[in-house]
Amino acid sequence: MFILHLRAKPGAKTTALQVAADGSVTVRLRAPAQDGKANACLLAYLAEVFGVSKSSVELLSGHTAPFKKVRIDGVDETAGQAVLARLQAAA
C-alpha cells in the first residue's frame, strides 16, 4: 500500500500530475470541483498512472479540501516513489 499526499487543482485544461523538485505532488484536474466530480476524476487518474484498478485507490482525507491523502493498494512504497521519480524526470 502506498500513501500519497498531494494538492488537487480542479478546473484545469487537462488532467496531469506534476512532481516538484522538493517532492511535492500536484494533480491538475480537468473536472470541476462540484458534486465530487474532481475527486472521482482524481481517483480514476491515479489508478491509471499507477497501473491499478479504480477500486484500489481510496481518498482517505481531504474530500472538500485541496490537500488530499490517497491510499493506493497494490503499489508498495518503492514502486510508488519510482513512478513519481519517473514523472518528475519527464517534466
From TrEMBL:
It holds the Pfam family DUF167. SUPFAM superfamilies: YggU-like. Transmembrane segments: none annotated. SMART domains: DUF167. PANTHER family: UPF0235 PROTEIN C15ORF40. Belongs to the UPF0235 family. This is UPF0235 protein ACFQT0_24585.
